[in-house]
């Protein structure tokens, strides 16, 4: 099963955003690859989404309310991740956190959350809406606020991330 089909499994009662369909179909390759890239760029721009066609995102991506999203092209996002409108996953250009985030599996990122710099977000992490994250976050955690407060929580994303795809 390819990433397009795995992403589609996450959208049970709604449609996958068009730009996401084109994003995955482009990544699958084939003779229509150039067409999918053009369609991706047109649809992405209409929704104010700043996402590179080559960004490394694992299977099972779910985008709730797809608008105003910025993801650095060098960022890495794991499988079964939920992202929502207004989020930023960005680069830090100087200092000890110079670089881009690496986000684990089963991560839920709330509305208007920001993750910047060379930080690692563990697996099973819930980043609350409007949080600013510029530090490493361990597995099984909830992140709140600005500056962020990290609370350990077994099954942090339970009930938030549904219809997950099997680990690849």
Note the main attributes of this structure.
single chain; 168 residues; UDP N-Acetylglucosamine Acyltransferase, domain 1; 14 strands; 3 helices; alpha/beta; 6-stranded mixed sheet
The sequence of SSEs as H and E is HHHEEEEEEEEEEEEEE
Rg, Cα atoms, Å = 15 Å
Percentage of residues assigned to helices: 10-25%
Counted beta strands: 14
Q: Give the structural class.
A: alpha/beta
Output the number of helix runs.
3
Q: Distance between the terminal alpha carbons, to the nearest Å? A: 10 Å
Q: Provide the residue-averaged pLDDT.
A: 95
Strand order of the largest sheet: 2-5-8-11-13-14
* Domain unit count: 1
Principal-axis shape = globular
Query: Quaternary state, please?
Result: single chain
CATH superfamily: Hexapeptide repeat proteins
Give the CATH topology: UDP N-Acetylglucosamine Acyltransferase, domain 1
The CATH architecture name reads 3 Solenoid
Question: What about the largest sheet?
Answer: 6 strands, mixed
Strand content range? 15-25%
Per CATH, the class reads: Mainly Beta
């Amino acid at each position: 099963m390819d990433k397009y089909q795995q992403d589609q499994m996450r959208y049970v009662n709604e449609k996958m955003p068009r730009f996401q369909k084109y994003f995955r179909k482009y990544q699958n390759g084939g003779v229509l690859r150039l067409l999918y890239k053009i369609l991706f760029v047109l649809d992405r721009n209409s929704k104010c989404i700043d996402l590179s066609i080559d960004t490394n995102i694992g299977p099972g991506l779910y985008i709730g309310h797809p608008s105003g999203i910025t993801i650095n092209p060098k960022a890495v996002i794991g499988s079964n991740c939920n992202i929502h409108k207004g989020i930023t996953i960005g680069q830090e250009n100087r200092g000890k956190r110079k670089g881009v985030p690496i986000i684990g599996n089963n991560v839920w990122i709330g509305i208007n959350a920001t993750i910047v710099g060379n930080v690692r977000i563990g697996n099973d992490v819930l980043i609350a809406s409007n949080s600013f994250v510029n530090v490493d976050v361990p597995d099984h955690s909830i992140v709140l606020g600005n500056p962020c407060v990290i609370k350990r929580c077994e099954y942090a994303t339970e009930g938030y991330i549904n219809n997950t795809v099997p680990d690849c």
